[in-house]
Every structure is written in C-alpha cells, then in structure tokens.
Write a structure and sequence with these properties.
single chain, 383 residues, alpha+beta, four-stranded antiparallel sheet, 13 helices, elongated, binds guanosine-5'-diphosphate, binds manganese (II) ion
Length: 383
C-alpha cells in the first residue's frame, strides 16, 4: 500500500528524521495562507499523488511570492499526473540545496533480506539510474537479526559522503530509517533526494513509503491512510467474495478453478498471442451464485472481448459445474462470447448439458485447454 509524501514525512518526523517544514493544502486559498504561516519567501509547491516523477510532470514548483504561490497551486491542483488527479498540494520551505543523494531501505528478493540502497545520483528517478548507470547504485544487505548496526550505517554513509561531519549526521538518520522500515512493516522507505544544504545539514525533502498489505492488520493507523484506486477496490471486493483476483491489462477475461490452473491459463493465452484481462481463481465450487458473481466481476471491466472459463472437475463434478454455468447464464444478460472448457469427473455429461441448454447462445464448448485457448484468442482478435 502506498501513502502520500506528507504522510510518509509525518512518519519520518515521528522517527526523528530531519524533514523540511511543510503544510498540506487542499485549495489555492489554503496554499496562500500556508505561505504566510510559513513566513519564508521561497517555498516549494508539490502535488501529492501516488506516483513518482512529479517534478518532470510539472507537479513540483518553486515559488517566491504570494502571486506565484497562487499561480502554481492553481495550476497543480486539478492536474492529472499519470492518471492521478491532484486534490492536495504540499507547501514546503525551500531548502538551499548543495547536493542531492538517494537512500532507501527496501526488501531485496535476491539477498532475501532488507537492504540499504544508496546513490550519489540523487534527485533522479532511481529506475533510470539503475538502467543507465547501475554502477552508481550501492547495495548493503542488512542481517535482520543484527539490524542496522553502527558499522553498517557508517559503511552506507561513507559510500555517499566524503565529509565526516555529514557522515556523523547520516549514521543515526539511516538507523532511524531502518527502524521505521522494520517497525511499520514497510516494503520501501525511500528518501529521494536526501540533500546536503548549503548550511551543511542533511534534510529529507522527499519521502516515499510503501507497506506490506499482509501486515496492515498490525498497523491500523497506517491502514487508515489507504486510498485504493478503482482497480484496487475491485480486487478488494473480489477478495471479500472469496475470490482470488488480480486485474491485468488484456481483453480475455479468465474464470478458472484453482490457482495453478489459472496461472497456466494466462500463460497459454500469452503463448497464443492473446492478452489475459485478469487472474481469477473461483475455488472449487459449482455454486451458480458464485459463477454469476465471478462473471459480473469480469464484465465490470469495460474492455473484455471474450470470457474463457477453464474448469477442471476433480472434487467438483463437471455436470454440477455445467448446471451452475447454465443457471448463471440464464440470469446474466451479456452479449460477450464465452468459451467453456470443462474436463474431469463426469465431463461427457457436463459438456452434453452445456451443448443442449446453451444452444443458440454465444457460447463455445471445448474439450482441451489448447482448443479453448485458441478459440478465445481468435474471438478476441476478431472483434
Ligand atoms: P519527485 O519529482 O516526485 O521525486 O519530487 P521531489 O520532491 O523529489 O522534487 C523533485 C526535485 O525538485 C528535487 O530533486 C529538487 O531538485 C527539487 N526541489 C524539491 N524541493 C526543493 C527545495 O526545497 N529547494 C530546491 N532548490 N529544490 C527543490
Ligand atoms: Mn523525489
């Protein structure tokens, strides 16, 4: 789960990390009064959205007068950045930047532990640095049993700074960042840029945190900060109904029983040059209500061209599943073609039922998985 910069900065502050003074504003008028409250000529106005690269998109502006604050806050509020509409801006004191650095704590799958990631190429998007000049990124695995020891934090600090006075400030800062990461079950705690000011102080002028969804139950105060996207809301309502669902970009809706078969179904679609619209495991039941709910869920995404139902009757019997499907299709009003592959216990009876009862509808019945896959991809590309 993502949080906004101002929310991450509040956590930073709680953990003793040096952040710039800032005030959250929801309107131009609020920004103007925040400017007076800040009582400093130069301020930075920043869009608060759940995406990076705001600077490049015009969502970060330096203002030096009330008039500029009015102008930039007005321009940024309502702006669309990578699909997110800005409804809040952060007004921060402008800092005199001498140099910019990158530091984060992140879970690293390769070393299977948290790592410090550090770079002297701060301020730029780290993905870009990683792609173009990976040698500029330093990684320091942290033994989770030892934590961010003094020597570890010093090692990280010396990779970034040559000035001992800065290293001295950086060591407790990095240790606190690590503590925050661990105690709040974060998957990322990032400062980009961490700056050295002309006055010789370290300051976090940006803050980014993401949290492990599976640990949110331990942190109600963080869970409360969640602002799910439309897609995440659909995924959550699917979860509430007992489905395992992940939304994807393609146009072939998939309804499958069993997670392994659902993965194999998506692989197959890709192999035949189609694009799955989702992962959906409906579990092992032939309950028509569940099938209706699953169909509704699939069709709630506007761009579906065909639905592929792939059922293996192991414990559930194919004739039961067929009855469930028939009942479901009698309730649903949809013009979208459906390909059904049904195999396993009582499969001949099941397929026969489908052929009889669904004759005349836009539904194709297949025996093998590859037959169904080819048919679905063909139907999706025809439209
Ligand atoms: P991002 O583009 O979404 O990562 O937004 P940031 O908050 O990281 O800001 C982008 C860039 O704006 C930083 O790398 C700085 O170069 C610049 N910037 C942000 N705040 C200040 C500030 O207080 N003073 C100055 N001079 N530049 C700033
Ligand atoms: Mn940044």
């Amino acid at each position: 789960m993502k949080v906004h910069e101002y929310q991450a900065k509040a956590l930073f502050k709680e953990y003793g990390l040096p952040v710039d003074r800032h005030i959250l504003c929801r309107s131009v008028d609020e920004a103007v009064s925040a400017y007076h409250e800040m009582n400093q000529q130069r301020v930075v106005i920043k869009a608060q959205v759940h995406t990076g690269g705001r600077g490049k998109a015009g969502g970060v502006k330096l203002a030096s007068s009330e008039e500029e604050v009015r102008q930039y806050a007005g321009a940024i509020l309502g702006m669309n950045i990578k699909g997110f509409t800005v409804d809040r801006v952060l007004l921060s004191e402008a800092v005199n930047i001498a140099s910019e650095y990158y530091i984060s704590v992140v879970t690293d799958r390769k070393s299977k532990c948290p790592i410090f990631m550090a770079s002297r190429a701060g301020g730029m998007e780290i993905e870009q640095v990683a792609k173009e000049t990976p040698e500029k990124i330093f990684k320091f695995p942290v033994d989770p049993l030892l934590g961010a020891t003094d020597f570890k934090a010093r090692q990280v600090a010396y990779s970034l700074f040559d000035d001992k006075a800065i290293v001295k400030q950086a060591v407790p800062l990095f240790q606190n960042l690590y503590r925050l990461f661990i105690e709040k079950d974060a998957s990322l705690a990032e400062i980009n840029p961490l700056v050295v000011t002309k006055e010789g102080e370290l300051k976090a002028i940006d803050a980014k945190m993401t949290f492990d969804n599976n640990a949110l139950f331990r942190h109600p105060e963080i869970k409360a900060l969640g602002e799910p996207t439309e897609e995440e809301k659909i995924e959550q309502s699917a979860k509430d109904k007992g489905f395992s669902y992940v939304s994807l970009d393609g146009d072939i809706g998939c309804m499958v029983n069993g997670a392994g078969l659902a993965m194999a179904t998506m692989d197959m679609i890709k192999l035949y040059n189609g694009e799955p619209a989702n992962f959906l495991d409906i579990g092992g039941s032939s309950n028509p209500e569940k099938i209706v709910e699953a169909m509704k869920l699939l069709l709630s995404k506007g761009n579906i061209k065909v639905v592929l139902v792939n059922i293996f009757g192991g414990i559930t019997r194919c004739d039961d599943v067929a009855k469930g499907l028939i009942e479901a299709f009698s309730i649903l009003k949809s013009e979208i073609p459906v390909v059904i592959r049904l195999t396993g216990t009582n499969e001949t009876e099941g397929r026969e039922l489908l052929r009889q009862k669904l004759a005349g509808k836009n539904i194709a019945v297949a025996t093998t998985m590859s037959e169904a896959g080819h048919k679905a991809v063909e139907l999706a590309s025809n439209k």
